[in-house]
Amino acid sequence: MNRLAVIGTGRMGLLVSALAPEMGFDVVATLGRAQTRDGVTRAALAGAEVAIEFTIAGAAFGMVRACAALGVPVVSGTTGWDAERVQVESFVRSTTGALLWAPNFALGAHLFAKVVADAARRFSRADGGFDSHLVETHHTEKRDAPSGTARALAQVAEQALGRAVPVTSVRVGQVPGTHEMIFDAPFEQVRLVHEARDRRVFAAGALTAARWLMGRRGVFTLDDYFGEVGR
Description:
The chain is α/β, with parallel strands linked by helices. 42% of the residues lie in helices and 25% in strands.
């Protein structure tokens, strides 16, 4: 079994740890705030071959950087630290480390972004006067609004449409994550929806990415994963 370190003991970290054995991983380290107070150390990683990080925006920078410095490939699912990620990615490359980051590890959500981009290109050429809007819904404890996924979806839609796409964020109950792209005209409406029904889908995607990342060097996204497995 592949040796895995899980960084973060929130909902996602616990799900990754629980699902890991089913997907061929041995969780050799689970690092929460207490274990990372002084940073991530080689001893704390306990010989892990790969790490998965789900923490918070203020901590992700240091966690990913430490893993790269120690030569441990890391999959990061934390959102809200876009400004710092450019610097971290540069550091990862300079240390010949490995990082795969995604705003959403539901593999269907990644493909959904491609559908949104294609739809936006088509609607940009339509004569029906279509307006566009993105609505994202998450649980009440979701820290960033809009979500990282919503920002990414809005960006791909904006590139195709040539104009800004408004985003509405809803925080309610225990919703794992729903993203709805709306194209609206005076007499008709088209809605594209991705709905995560269980948070385990994010954990499964992160573990799939971790297996793929092992043995690689550089900075990657799920585009790289799909580009290879789709050949």
